[in-house]
Amino acid sequence: MRILDGYRVLDCSIAMAGPFAAQRLGDLGADVVKVEPVTGEWQRHAAAGGAQGNAINVSFLSLNRNKRSLAVDLKAADGKRVLMRLVETADVFLQNYRPGVAERLGVDYATLSAINPHLVYVSMSGYGEDGPHRNLPGQDLLLQARSGAMLSTGRHGEPPQPAGQYLVDAVTASTAFEAVLAALLHRERTGQGQLVKVNMLDAITTLQMQELSVFTAGGVPQQRGSEPHAHVYIRAPYGTFKTADGFLALAMPDLPTLGKVIGEETFLSMDSEVDGWTHRDRIFRRTAERLLSRTTDEWLTALTDAGIWCGPVYDYQQLVDDPQIRHNGTFVEYDHPTEGRVKTPGFPYSFEKTPATIERGAPLVGEHTREVMSEAGFTADEVASLLADGVVTETRRPPGDAAADASTDAHPGDDLTGAVW
Fold first, then answer.
1. Which candidate among 204, 244, 307, 386 keeps its CA 20 to 30 Å from the CA of 54?
2. In which domain, by residue range, is 407 found?
3. How far apart are the first and last CA of the chain?
4. Within a 10 A sphere around the Cβ of 365, how many other Cβ atoms?
5. Which residues cross the membrane (predicted)?
6. At what angle do helices 255-262 and 296-305 cross, to 10 degrees?
7. Which residues of the chain have pLDDT under 70?
8. How far apart are CA 365 and CA 306, in angstroms?
9. Which CATH number is 105's domain given?
10. Integer Cα distance of 87 and 93 in angstroms
11. Cα 320 to chain center, whole Å?
């Protein structure tokens, strides 16, 4: 038994934040039904990095494992009837429609909770359900910029550098995942469903708990220097530095100790907690000059031996090959009916008694339409009629797919050949 076995999630979200949150629920055993348009969810048609895949691009593949697909036209009366039948037995409904769309479609909390008062209804938005920014585009880069986070790194006067990840989407997904678990715990205790609201602006703002508290409670403004410090609220040297053959990261060393290791005599008489702030740019610059003289491995050995916090700067291949990553089983591999052998990040948590698993890879558009509708009580004739009218659509699995009839539980680090789809 997995932690969320027996719970059904209706995932009506698109792009990254909502689907990623729903995938986490599926990893813990929830039956996640991805309710998508008859032509497929938007992310199916937007390939990050140009990684198109065969039948499913990598963007969609990475965010929709452990889900079944129901392709239905919610603008059609019969399509809405299909969804309402599913709502009757659902535990969680998750959507990230633009403000007002849920009401226009008739799938807002008031409507669905009247059908199922035990429903946990999660509404995700860019900036909030109302307020002056409610209609602004909830896009990751734009929210990174608005959050203030970009001005905590880099050089004064130069363009701020965004994170190299879809940071706001990812933290919003984790926030929604936490919120669903908390709301389900509340329901277990009280029997009551409820409306849960999560927005991207609040998620990225509250992620900066320490930084913003330094500003709001400590009164210390963000002030970037003339050198590319990795964080405005951490003393120098703090950041990445070029070596004779690559780069390394260096974090808050004791200045006299660092001076001895790199041969910088001006550091020997410095007070780390005073001069590290008042002479931040000069310290960064002198450190950068000294580190050019030796290779990364040479410096890592010398600095580590002196008790200084430092580390290599990996690319993705080096990360995948890292012995700790291999030991942790951070990545999992499995065979997908259309995409072949898939290697992807696994699960960020470990449970001794109820481990997360991969039961199926990302589905084709409407791959489970018949199956899901049958479970909801629709007859074969009703399904056939709705298919004929285009209210719902389906895509069949490739013929002769051996993996379709196989079954295995997947745990972190497992070889998942033969996972059931």
1. 386
2. 8-205+329-416
3. 19
4. 22
5. none
6. 130
7. 398-421
8. 57
9. 3.40.50.10540
10. 8
11. 18
